[in-house]
Amino acid sequence: MSGDRTHWAWFALIGLTLVALGFRDRLGWLMEFPEAWEWPMTDWLNTGMDWVVDTAGPAFRAFSDLMDYPMSWVREFLHWMPWALTVGLLVIASFAVSGCKLAVFTFLAMFYMVVIGYWTESMNSLALVMVSVPLAVAIGFCVGTWAFYSDQAERVITPTMDTLQTIPVFAYLLPILLLFGFGPVVGLIASVLYAVPPMVRNTTLGLARVDEEVIEAGMMAGATAGQMFWRVRVPSALRQILLGVNQTMLAAFSMIIIASIIGGTSDIGWEVLTHIRKANVAEAILAGVVIALMAMVMDRITARAAMGRSPDAGEDESFVARYRYWIVAAVFTGVMLVLARVFPFLQEYPRAWEFYPADAMNDAFNWLLVEYAGAIKAIKTTALFYLMLPVKMGLEQTISPFSWGFEFTMPMKIGYAVAMAALAGWLLLRRRVRAAIGVALLAILLYFGITGLPWLSIAGVMVLLAWQAGGRRLAIGTGVGLAFLMVAGVWPEATISFYLCGLAVALSFLIGTTLGVIASENDAVSAFLRPISDTLQTMPLFVILIPFVMFFKLGDFTALLAIMAYAIVPAIRYAEHGLRGVSPEVIEAAKACGSSRWQMLWRVRLPLALPQLLLGLNQTIMFGVAMLVITALVGTSDLGQEIYIGLNNGDFGVGMIAGIGMATLAMIADRMTRGYSRKGRAALGQG
Prior knowledge:
By secondary structure, the protein is mainly α. The protein has helices at residues 3-22, 28-31, 41-80, 83-98, 100-115, 119-149, 151-166, 169-180, 184-208, 212-220, 225-236, 238-254, 256-263, 268-277, 281-308, 319-322, 324-342, 358-371, 373-393, 395-398, 410-429, 433-448, 455-487, 491-521, 523-538, 541-552, 556-580, 584-592, 597-608, 610-630, 639-649, 652-683. The mean pLDDT is 86. It is built from 32 helices and no strands.
């Protein structure tokens, strides 16, 4: 669609929206999707699931019983090992891949688990990861290889992986629970399902990126198909595959608490979940930090191993030099097993030596709540009345003597309409058509609120944006996805999800990009933000929710802050990475032209970093959707709440429809941002 035709489509949509809003009392079917047009998909899914459980349930439960053996063996082995030996081996591994700095961090992180009194629970969680990660890696490697060699398989595998990553985990906890029963193995299976996609993607990507010269050399050497794969392609793709292992491990750690919901054992995830349910803030944070530290340690070790690994590493070294760290680890193991028998505190850390500051932390939190109660209430009230409610319900319903201190009179309404129309008209006269369209859409949104807009208008905006981003194919796919939400009967909940996640993503992207810009110009700021970002990204989602609930109680504002806290990380990182990646030659050329620092940012660096910024927006959306489901615990009324209701009530249909609906919104946003990113790269000549 050409630019002029697109503009006319936008003008037509705005006109139809205004007509529908003007006659909303008479055109009720345009304002709310008619119930008569909905399909009983929930009943269909429940009927199908009942048949599957009755038919295949015994086989799935037998598999669950079988998988209980490796789980038990690994757990018992970790408990048998002295804590000092486990900590020491991880420190040696850290030093081997990255040196002294990571070794010190690993020691402090692991010793925190010991001294806080959560060593046993930590090892139970580590057992889950140690079993689920190899399974996920093996399955992901096989599936990724299949996708690489077969285009037909790739066309099925890619959307399947998209679905597994975008459907909220809560949505497929219920079918797993129905099929496999309750217990630790159910959590293991859920972890494997969630952790497989990163391995699949990295395996396919690594195999596809092997240089043609390497392949040709293997063929000239007379390698068979098996030799070509195992001795040429896999070694060349090993770095990317190891990065897949790293991402798979992080995904498994992120499932620790969620796995405890359906497979509760005395692990660290269960500790966090128990304290959250009891509203024990300090206790939940102390336990949540354990998961974050374990994830950070394993992330650093596997990531450094992947980055430093090359196919021919160590070929010229002697046996002792090549395997020196393995030898050190073996000697250390033997010595520590002997010492643990002589000194019992090396086997089991004494309870009297533990330090558990939960009471002091709770006292500090309570003091903050009392001391700053007025400020906390003012922040929440201001955000609700002046930001969230106008976007959700519109100014016409938000402005009142109670909220804003005055009545929204007719002259004010006319003045608002005239001012917005004048601004849009002025932009049109200056030939800034897109800006004028944006002002008109924003004016309508703020006046009526997203819940007061016709369903056809919201769908029309999404389809037109998809058309601009990816053409007819993406527009049709977007239309089909939105139609599913309507006929499935979850359009109102989807609208609330769009409002809450959209607002959080917009704020996260704005604030995160600003911080990323500052970090790209200041190494001290970058060094300060990096550990904060690492902590937010590795901290369990449930734990991120806790401090916001403590200060702001339940409600949409708490959900907004929790989503922002998690979604802001990729915005910061991609902005900094994109701006630091701008060519130094371009910077020097701009300086030679006399550009000021402000001009350098807005006219040189930001435009050149636009593709990276759009990828950051893409990941910000994905992170926001992931957190949106967790915020159902604070009383939201969106698709996440429907998923939670389905899980609590054992209603597979309700939970799965809501989960697919949320995945649909996530995939639409993902494809749109990727499309705009491709356009940005093409405009910059980056392909």
